[in-house]
Design a protein that fits this description.
By secondary structure, the chain is of the alpha/beta class. It contains 18 helices and 22 strands. The strands form four sheets. Strands 8, 9, 10, 11, 12, 13, 14 and 17 form an eight-stranded mixed beta sheet that branches. It has a seven-stranded parallel beta sheet with strand order 3-4-2-5-6-1-7, sandwiched between helices. It has a five-stranded mixed beta sheet with strand order 19-21-22-18-20. Residues 76-255 form the Helicase ATP-binding domain.
């Protein structure tokens, strides 16, 4: 009986997907025709930006001028006719070029008209867009994409095209793709129609985050019904999680695997490190100082902003060529940090030390022979160690830190934080802790196998993930034709009942009262100011340091009042360390 009910619900949802597609295609064409015709007829407006087909010229050739494909690229071409392809290959193996070759085949065979690359974070999307723009006409879209395109001609028109998935290649976040399923904005219906005629590339995912995986499962059910070709690629795609990408199949195929064991990562040491005073160096942290002194290039990964700042302040006494990078910088300063890190640790760089959080795990083409990393789930560690000796065939050295709080493993952010309780570590983090030992030498094949060992059971969604997944399905059902009366910002990915990923409550904070204007011309100007001068602060930090903030009203447009939060003077924010709450800022 239950099986029949599930089958009936599936048939109903499938019919609804097809029905929405039929309406949204007409809806999208009417929108495009109306907007572009109005622009052409306006004597003061420039002609609309052209809608170009997807074209990709593979840039790597042998001495005879023939394409020189790497194994992962050959594999993508050989299996390009599969409706959904799961591809696993180590970092630095050429997966991005492989995905563009795969997309080219989808367009050539009339299975798609354009391509979309969906990445897990804004940072990875911005970085990949910069890497691909010389080989294919592409557009970047996420909530702060304008900062990376600030010098572009007709900026907002270009952003609009990317937001609507109209470029030959759109580089965006998985959150933006998921959001178009909700149908809450008129533009979501235009995006949905364009998604239906695209080839979708999902580049890496947070396998430890079951909320994201549950959302992707729903999206894949929709895309399967629309026959959208999908390429899922990762350095550490767990076999047991493939059911998310092949919904409805009891026997999902194994990923196409081109991982090699060409280099080795040696876990040279494992240290437990709790809170420390960077002004009072102790024996338990001397090894880190010695490592920083001896290594011409060094990457340090911390799991939280506060711990990253502590390492930075410790090492700043011993190295001048040092950069700290985390999420609590303004967007312009993030761009500055990325450039500085690439100039030091990129191919042919000047050498130096980068201290980063998860923001620098993926799509950052930098390398160092030595790395210090706090313990994280094995798939995240594989991404981090992909920056070890990236430009050479030499082995890399890894020093592992077990972050401690009150003498026990401090798991944040890899776990849950129940109200009124301390952090509870995820199973993936605890199993990774058991898997890794000092003195181990791990190849990329070893990391892949250990990832499968950690994620060795079919993905079981938590109650929270299932409720959120059902909320997404309800959004799809209720808004397939008629939008809700509530308005939503064009950059917003979450709704009142559904989230693309579960992130604790955040407060947008201007880093200085001096950056807050009494009046803004309109919401676009207000949004630009927020992106340029504000950072996101967890609500619990806002409550903890409430005396550091001031709230004031500003006028946006005509008769619209918004409340903004700013840091009081003297502001604890600076360009070197960003916004860090610690004893030093009290």
């Amino acid at each position: 009986m239950r099986e029949q009910q599930r089958s009936g619900r599936h048939e109903d949802f499938s019919a609804l997907v097809r029905q929405r597609y039929e309406y949204d295609v007409v809806r999208a064409l009417l929108q495009l025709a109306d907007r572009r015709a109005s622009q052409i007829e306006s004597p003061e407006a420039p002609d609309p930006l052209p809608l170009r087909p997807f074209r990709y010229h593979f840039p790597y050739t042998d001495e005879d001028g023939a394409p020189s494909y790497r194994p992962v690229q050959e594999a993508a071409l050989e299996h390009a006719d599969e409706p959904t392809l799961a591809l696993r290959s180590e970092t630095g193996s050429g997966k991005t070029a492989a995905s563009l070759l795969w997309a080219r085949e989808q367009v050539r065979n009339q299975r798609a008209r354009r391509a979309i690359i969906a990445l897990p974070t804004r940072f990875t999307a911005s970085s990949l867009a910069a890497d691909t723009e010389t080989h294919v006409t592409s557009g970047l879209y996420h909530s702060s994409a304008w900062q990376h395109l600030s010098d572009a001609d007709r900026l907002f028109e270009r952003l609009s095209m990317a937001r609507q998935f109209l470029y030959p290649l759109t580089v965006t976040t998985i959150d933006q793709v998921l959001a178009c399923l909700t149908g809450r904005r008129e533009e979501d219906h235009l995006r949905f129609a364009n998604l239906a005629h695209s080839a979708l590339i999902i580049d890496e995912c947070d396998f430890y985050d079951d909320v994201v995986q549950a959302n992707i499962e729903t999206m894949m059910s929709v895309l399967r019904e629309l026959e959208v070709p999908v390429l899922v690629m990762s350095a550490t795609l767990p076999d047991e999680h493939l059911s998310v990408y092949f919904p409805g199949r009891d026997d999902p195929p194994s990923p196409l695997d081109t991982t090699t064991a060409d280099t080795t990562v040696e876990i040279a040491s494992i240290h437990g490190v709790g809170e420390f005073d960077q002004d009072e160096e102790g024996a338990d942290i001397d090894w880190l100082i010695d490592t920083a002194r001896d290594a011409s290039r060094l990457i340090v990964y911390a799991n939280t902003v506060d711990r990253a700042a502590a390492y930075y302040r410790l090492l700043a006494r011993h190295r001048d060529d040092l950069v700290l990078y985390h999420s609590r910088f303004t967007e312009p300063h993030k761009a500055d940090k990325e450039r500085a890190i690439r100039s030091m640790l990129g191919d042919g760089g000047s050498d130096g030390v980068a201290v980063m959080t998860q923001i620098g795990e993926m799509s950052l083409n930098v390398s160092a022979p030595v790395m210090v990393s706090e313990l994280c789930p094995i798939d995240r560690l594989a991404q981090r160690t992909g920056r070890l000796s990236r430009f050479t065939d030499t082995d890399g050295t890894l020093h592992l830190i077990r972050p401690l709080g009150d003498g026990t493993l401090y798991p944040a952010p890899y776990g849950t934080l129940p109200p009124g309780e301390g952090w509870q570590a995820s199973d993936a983090l605890l199993q990774t802790d058991e898997e890794l030992q000092e003195g181990q030498r791990l190849t990329k094949l070893d990391l892949k196998e250990r990832t499968n060992a950690v994620y060795n059971e079919p993905l079981s969604f938590s109650d929270q993930a299932e409720r959120n997944q059902e909320a997404l399905r309800q959004e799809f059902r209720q808004h397939w034709l008629i939008r809700p009366q509530t308005t939503q910002d064009e950059d917003e990915t979450d709704t009142a009942r559904w989230q693309s990923r579960i992130i604790g409550p955040q407060v947008e904070v201007f880093v200085s009262e001096d950056h807050v204007q009494d009046q803004y011309e309109g919401y676009r100007a207000y949004q630009q100011a927020t992106t340029q001068y504000a950072v996101s602060v967890p609500s619990y930090r806002y409550d903890q340091y409430s005396d550091r903030f001031v709230t004031q009203e500003v006028e946006v447009g005509t008769d619209n009042i918004e409340q903004v939060v700013a840091l009081t003077e003297p502001s604890p924010y600076d360009q070197d360390t960003g916004l860090v709450f610690s004893q030093d800022t009290d």
